[in-house]
Amino acid sequence: MSSVLALIAFIFWLPQLKRPDKDVTEIKPEENSSIWTSSLAWSVTLFMGIQSFIFYVLVAWMPEMLVDKGLSTAQAGGMLSLLQMTLLPVTFNVPIIAEKRPNQKSFVWVAFLLFASGIVGFMGNNMTIATFSIMGIGVAGGIAFSLSMMFFNLRTTSAKQAAELSGMAQSVGYLLAATGPFLFGFLHDVTNTWKTSLIILLVMTVLLLFVGLNSAKNRAIK
Prior knowledge:
The protein has seven helices and no strands. By secondary structure, the protein is mainly α.
């Protein structure tokens, strides 16, 4: 799955090569300031990290949660495949629509609502609800990942700046995301229940909403 996401990220980066207004040789004076001091850059970075955090946790632990609900290992693996199949078409199609909008706030709201409702759906034992929750989470993950890749381009004014934002967001973001599966599993071991871990994941979706709405504003890093 990681190779598929890397391919998608590469596809989103290709338009950079066709944009003459972002010539790396034309560096504006204001770009001399470090991107690490920009609040907008940090919002994009946290959005990248939190959406990855949520996705990595669910990919790592969702099958085990489903097995605990009574599914076989094969059925739980099938549900994970359903999540990925739901995510992929959304990931490819959202950028086509979102780039034409004055801002991307509505997409952030949809991602938040689907993530939150999907996580809540896992707290019960109804497998029909869990199935729809998985599909909703897949759509939310596709939207959030697409937006995180798009923000590297939409919130910068040059290829140099976009590359710096991409490097910052992916290095810090994936470092944050890497802690997710460990923390989620640790909480489960300590509490002997998935609910506490899922509540923490819900808190992360709220944080995703706040940094996402800030990232989605129609403005650029200065």
